[in-house]
Every structure is written in C-alpha cells, then in structure tokens.
Design goal:
The complex is a heterodimer of chains A (about 110) and B (about 120). Chain A is an all-beta fold and about 110 residues long. Chain A contains no helices and eleven strands. The radius of gyration of chain A is 13 Å and the shape is globular. In chain A, strand 9 and strand 10 form a beta hairpin. Helices cover about 0% and strands about 60% of the residues of chain A. Chain B is globular and about 35 Å long. The chains are: A mainly beta (about 110), B mainly beta (about 120).
C-alpha cells in the first residue's frame, strides 16, 4: 500500500544549526512534492513545491531535494531560528492522482 | 489580498445531527479543496471543487458532501454525525485546478466537536 513517512515525530536542534527533515515514500510515483509549515491552531502554510524532474529547489533559508531513486525528499532549514519552530508536513501526488496525500509531519523545535 | 476564510471557527454538535461548514477562497481562486485533520489520521483529502464541479474525491463515506457556488465559495456538509467526525476541517484554495500541482492556501479551519 502507499505510504509516506516523515522522520521522527519531533526534532530538536540548536539555534543557528541546519535542520534536516526527511520524507520517505513507498508505492508512489509522485509527480509533485510539496512542503508545508503548520503552527498550532492554524492551517498549513505552503513553503516549496518540487517536481519529479527537479533535483533541488531553494527559497531563502529553505532547500528541498527530491530523489526519486531513493524515494525520498529532504527539507533543510539553514541558520535555524526559534521562529522556525513548527510542524512541517510533506505532501505528494502521483501524476494520475489529483489529490495531495500528506505525511504525518515532523514537529521541529529550535532551541535558543 | 484577504486570505481564505472559514466559518464558523468552532462548532459543537451532537451525534446524529448534520453540519454545514463554509469556505471563502482567496479572490480570483477557483479551486477549493477540503481536508480533515485528526491527531490519529493526520491531514486527509476530502474533495476538490473547481468551477462548481467536483473534480476529485477522497476516501470518505457518502455522509461527507460538498458544493461550490458560482462565486467560488464552497460549503461542505456532514450528515448523521459520528463521534469520529470530530476534527479540524480545513479548506484550501488555489488559482488553478489540480490540488497536487499548485500551491494551496489554507484557511484557519473549523474545529468540529461531536458529542
């Protein structure tokens, strides 16, 4: 069956370090992969979208990679700040599916 | 530009009742998708509407339905509520159809509690 796994439910890192979050999937051939941030009591906020033919995408301190051979996406936040503390969700869809399927999320805490 | 708005923000209903939730997308957005979020199942896709037509539906029972109006506003309805329907219901809008291919803008959600 199709499955999306995000690394550990919670990740704590020190301010200034790079946070790396993992999204692994099985039995998917995703055409698109998206990353969202969600704060408590709020709806998710779109961060980055990467297509299957793209290896890497950057936006300010954010970088996402997409390895269709490893069936994995890595999401990096460089020079992390306490304000980056939130739950990060990956979401993907195959070319034929028109719906996004979300992972369970990783709760990131950046310690001052 | 105003963001996605959802009403009401909080709702308490009794098992067996029905409920209607409303979503107003960002101006100019014609695609509206609905999601259910629970601690156990996470964020799950319910359905997507574009130009008043349901384009895609997730794996939910027929008690969950929706519609979209000509101004792109959308409503979702849950009939015969069950305790397990307690969740945060999120609406997301996008300029174009195909929720998977385009960034989505989420509203704050409606917190539904079924007692």
């Amino acid at each position: 069956s199709q499955k999306i796994e995000q690394n550990s439910e919670a990740l704590n890192i020190q301010e200034g370090k790079t946070a790396t979050l993992t999204c692994n999937y099985t039995n998917y051939s995703p055409a698109y992969l998206q990353w969202y941030r969600q704060d408590p009591g709020r709806g998710p906020v779109f961060l980055l979208l990467i297509r299957e033919n793209e290896k890497e995408k950057r936006k300010e301190r954010l970088k996402v990679t997409f390895d269709t051979t490893l069936k994995q996406s890595l999401f990096h936040i460089t020079a992390s700040q306490p304000a980056d503390s939130a739950t990060y969700l990956c979401a993907l869809a195959s070319g034929s599916a028109r719906q996004l399927t979300f992972g369970s999320g990783t709760q990131l805490t950046v310690l001052p | 530009k105003a963001g996605v708005t959802q009403t009401p923000r909080y709702l308490i209903k009794t098992r067996g009742q029905q409920v209607t939730l409303s979503c107003s997308p960002i101006s100019g957005h014609r695609s509206v998708s609905w999601y259910q979020q629970t601690p156990g199942q996470g964020l799950q896709f319910l359905f997507e509407y574009f130009s008043e037509t349901q384009r895609n539906k997730g794996n939910f029972p027929g008690r969950f339905s929706g519609r979209q109006f000509s101004n792109s506003r959308s409503e979702m309805n849950v009939s015969t509520l069950e305790l397990g329907d307690s969740a945060l219901y999120l609406c997301a809008s996008s300029f174009q159809a195909g929720a998977s291919a385009y960034e989505q803008y989420f509203g704050p959600g409606t917190r539904l509690t079924v007692t």
